[in-house]
């Protein structure tokens, strides 16, 4: 894909949604961190349903630790892998208290040392909580980047590196949200909604879907 086409794609995404936001609910960096840890292999909707109750009871590292394992699990049991995630959240809370004064660290290296936090999660925190122009690549962004030709790659790290290299600086801060929302609601996995896509004519996907034929009307 040539640079001018890539610029045009992001200009359209920006025009359609100038200030994109993710769908996880949070009020500060710590709540975002916990929500993102819980969101692995889970929907944002299920995470939000769990964290509404959890954060009403405890929304600081110390408060969550004071709940104990059983009560923490009870708050998040609607989420897949909740026992493992509860252990990671508790261990992260302890590390935040022991090494960071209860605050969420602002560097990738420190974030990735937290239990349950990998490269993608660290990128989300850096981008959303601290305004850094990072691009976290999940399954939606991986699919959109490859399908459209914006930044094809064989794995998520390669796609991330290509996006960081190829996406113009003016779009980097919000690129993560534009691409994930586009993949979630338009460029869907099983059947992309190409007729409704605002970048249809710029996308390089060779198997675009077509509008459904009009229903036949019988006299």
Descriptors:
Endonuclease Iii, domain 2; Endonuclease III, domain 1; 2 domains; globular
Give an overview in words:
The protein has 219 residues and is mainly α. It folds into two domains: 3-20 and 135-196, Helix-hairpin-Helix base-excision DNA repair enzymes (C-terminal) (Endonuclease Iii, domain 2, Orthogonal Bundle); 29-129, Endonuclease III, domain 1 (Orthogonal Bundle), CATH 1.10.340.30. It has eleven helices and no strands. It has helices at 3-16, 29-38, 44-57, 61-67, 69-76, 82-100, 108-112, 119-129, 139-148, 156-166, 169-185. The mean pLDDT is 94.
Task: Give a topology summary.
Blueprint: H1 3-16, H2 29-38, H3 44-57, H4 61-67, H5 69-76, H6 82-100, H7 108-112, H8 119-129, H9 139-148, H10 156-166, H11 169-185
Helix pairs in contact: 1-11, 2-8, 4-6, 5-6, 9-10, 9-11
**Mean pLDDT across every amino acid position:** 94
CATH superfamily of the largest domain: Hypothetical protein, domain 2
Sheet/helix structural class? mainly alpha
Contiguous low-pLDDT stretches (5 residues minimum) are none
What is the number of domains?
Answer: 2
The count of helical stretches stands at 11
The main β sheet shows up as: none
Q: Any idea what the shape is? A: globular
Count every beta strand, where a strand is a DSSP E run of 2 or more residues.
0
Architecture of the largest domain, CATH level 2? Orthogonal Bundle
Q: How much helix, percentage-wise, in residues?
A: 55-70%
In whole angstroms, how far apart are the ends?
A: 49 Å
Write down the CATH topology of the largest domain. Endonuclease III, domain 1
Strand content: under 5%
CATH class assignment of the largest domain:
Mainly Alpha
Series of secondary-structure elements, N-terminal to C-terminal: HHHHHHHHHHH
If you compute it from the alpha carbons, what radius of gyration comes out, rounded to the nearest whole angstrom?
Answer: 20 Å
């Amino acid at each position: 894909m040539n640079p001018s086409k890539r610029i045009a794609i992001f200009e359209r995404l920006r025009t359609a949604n100038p200030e994109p936001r993710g769908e996880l609910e949070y009020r500060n960096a710590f709540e975002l961190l916990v929500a993102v840890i819980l969101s692995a292999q889970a929907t944002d909707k299920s995470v939000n349903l769990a964290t509404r109750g959890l954060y009403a009871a405890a929304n600081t590292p110390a408060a969550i630790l004071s709940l104990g394992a059983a009560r923490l699990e009870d708050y998040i049991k609607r989420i897949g892998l909740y026992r493992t995630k509860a252990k990671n959240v508790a261990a992260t809370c302890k590390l935040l208290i022991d090494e960071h004064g209860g605050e969420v660290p602002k560097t990738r290296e420190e974030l990735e040392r937290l239990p349950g936090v990998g490269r993608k999660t660290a990128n989300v925190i850096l981008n959303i909580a601290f305004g850094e122009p990072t691009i976290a690549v999940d399954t939606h962004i991986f699919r959109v980047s490859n399908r459209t030709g914006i930044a094809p790659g064989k794995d998520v790290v390669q796609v991330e590196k290509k996006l960081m290299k190829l996406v113009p600086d003016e779009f980097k801060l919000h690129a993560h949200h534009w691409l994930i929302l586009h993949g979630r609601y338009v460029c869907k996995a099983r059947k992309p909604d190409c007729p409704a896509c605002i970048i249809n004519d710029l996308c390089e996907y060779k198997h675009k879907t077509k509008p459904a034929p009009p229903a036949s009307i019988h006299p």
